[in-house]
Amino acid sequence: MLRFLLFLFGFSMLPDLSFAQIALTAKVQLEGAMSGGTMVTTLVDQGELPALQPYGTFPWEYYGTENTNIDTPPGTVDWVLVELRDANNANLVVDRSAALVSNSGTLIQPPGAGIGPGVVGFNAVGAGTYFVVVRHRNHIDIISADPIAIPNTTELDLTDPNNVLGGTTQLMDMGGSYAMVAGDMNGDGICSYLDYNVYIGDASDLMTYNYPDLTFDTHVTVLDYNLYRYHASAIGVQPIRYECASEVYDCLGACDGTAIEDVCGVCDGPGLLEWYADLDGDGLGDPGTSTMACTQPDGYVDNDFDNDDTEPGSGGGGVLDYFVGGMNIYETANCLVIETNDLPDHGSPYWGQGNVMYEAYNGDNPAWNQNPNSISEQDITFCLPLNPTETSDHQDTALGPIGISRNGVVLYNQYAGPNNQPLTDEIDSFDQYNGHPQNTGQYHYHIEPLSITNTYGKDAFIGFLLDGFPVYGPEENGQTISNADLDEFHGHFGPTADYPEGIYHYHFTDTDPYLNGGQFYGIPGTVTQ
Questions:
Q1: Partners of 150 in the β-ladder
Q2: Is the full-model pTM beyond 0.90?
Q3: Can you point out the beta strands (E) in 124-270?
Q4: Which residues on adjacent β-strands are paired with residue 445?
């Protein structure tokens, strides 16, 4: 009668296990959901957790009606599928039940908020000794090391590798406790290329409950791919794998798969690759001279962009290898062409909340004030001199792009628009990496790009100005560069790590004019946008 009255008035103080013959108490952790010793509850917080258990599909084919229509227990992370196996035959399933896992790892039978210790009920079998399997839609399943007596008076702790078949080979060490391994997006018990195919099919999906969302943030991003890649080729113990009738596995461990070891001895690899001679060391290959090899031979590169492999261009010393992101780089008869979408490869508040790259301001400027603009994709093409040379007719730098950085973001001069105003006020709108977008969404740096120097060092190669001469960070040979060390164009001649024979190069400094004194040292190329 008490249970009836509690549900009649909308309360669920106890789990409804009136149907169950036996109940299990158990604890697990999911690697992808772990954050600071507990698990995130983003799926519930964002309203993406399905009300009906999600295992009524291949390969699980479980059609139980467990749901959260009455309520969702507080701290819920996701659904799991729990199986009992015969104590004498770990491959024989005798009962199954869908359950919820809480952020502390406790398994809970829905419905039932605030029910204290979690329990999972089973009604097809009676009290006895069973192996326990916990399955999840994108983590490798686990099975208890030994059969346990159910109902159990002591919680089965499956975060302890001593209690899991295969021990630490089947779990991820989270720093004192262990979690189920992320990456099995098709549920077959193996992290293979088949899971990568699942990821690719849903890449960039946002605000969804999806198999490739290994991090439980409702988005499918490169963070999920990185987690999968870390565990690629991980294999669950035999009792939890969904086997195929042929029992034929390819080199990735996929049943009836097609992956084979290529001529280079790589499973499902690309085989021999074509490499192009780079005689002038500019990072660009000669389309007329190539060789086939498994790995990159000395003096060869992986592109055929050089139409004159006898004259070193702006990319001398291989600095073009530093360029990453949304860029296309090639040579014409007259210039080194760099095409960029100008999208930074780092976070920023200017991506806007909801964007996977959004990062709230966490810099050290107490006067920081975000401008009203947002980052948007651009179409900008630089044509830099192949062989930069000094000129006696030094042209003024203009507002807008005067150079390109190694991550594809454009460089601006020391002035703010529209009338060459000092940067004094505009600096307060620079994000934590010293960039910001203007009114068309064109993101740019006026001063030292911290995303680059924090990653590669204060003496790192930063990029090129429009005259083809390289730009470096604010240190050289272990010393901080000041304006007094540089000429009126904010550069000087000397050797660098990339140009050991010496070259004129610019430096970022921490005071005005920061990058360029208002004029180019050399003959500038062109920029179109």
A1: 128
A2: no
A3: 128-135, 142-143, 148-150, 156-157, 171-173, 178-180
A4: 411, 435
